[in-house]
Amino acid sequence: MSESLAVGVDIGGTNLRGVIANEAGEFLFREKEKINTKDKKGISRQIIKLVDDFCESAKIEVNDLKGIGIASTGPMKRKEGVLIEPTNIPFDEVPLKEPIEKKIDIPVSLINDCIAGVLGEKEYGIGSERNVENLVYVTMGTGIGGGAIVDNHLLIGEGGNAAEIGHFTVDPEERLECGCGKKGHWEAYCSGKNIPNYLRLRFSEIGDERVQNSLLHDLVSGDYSEIDAKLFFDAVRKEDELANQIAEEIGNLNAIGFSNVIDAYAPSLITVGGSVALKNEKIVLPPVQKQVKNHIRNIEPEIAITPLKEDVGLYGAVAEAFTSPNQSESRYL
Fold it and tell me: For the whole model, what pTM was predicted?
């Protein structure tokens, strides 16, 4: 084998994506399929088959691989390689490391998908280009999450669950409940899944007459249960007055969330990904970049969309796979 190869896997809410890549971060082959939730070892079997397919395509033996890195939503027990009550997967525990290593005798490492995002950015994105030592990645998609590198040290946390920034409080009045059961969290107001809840809250506060004269009302024919984040951003792009007002409010909540991140981790660079940010960059980012200075105590960092786009977690999974097991907890010390 002429170059070292590894497999990176990203377990999302619906799909499992995988790549085989070299140490330069070049994806040689990639696959995507629906997650197997028939039983708790279904995902492990999927990954094993994925690895076999990649090795056949690359014309190598499985034992030639450096390792397998798996990025996934938590919560998790990282060292044990087990997911604990993961979102959209109907099991209390989903073992990954043990069943895969039992079948394939190479190292398997599990990492939170948002932590994988900052690792991918550090190894293969802007962080690598600029040799950034203090870096945060924020994902704004179905939920809100993040990963942080401080003084060149990747923050892992107990169980592998550090930097749960989506659960920072941005509304002390606690008007909305987060999916975690607590109130006032950033994710409860500004994530793709929960923006509709904020819209309905504001509609009830603003009053029927003004809402009924808005494009938001027309887009769902008055049925507010049908509104979603895409329709909202479409209305903003069409310069609907009410939609723009609410977008400004969401922008301020996002600025508070980002300011908490800045004061917690003191990054020189924050990169942003996730479907909400990637598809609506010109709506989501400018209010944050404009308003964050009103809230922070630390030095204002650059805030930019990740150049790795939707693959940032896959890049992190690949980087994790190339790390030897005895180094994974202290990668940059």
Answer: 0.92
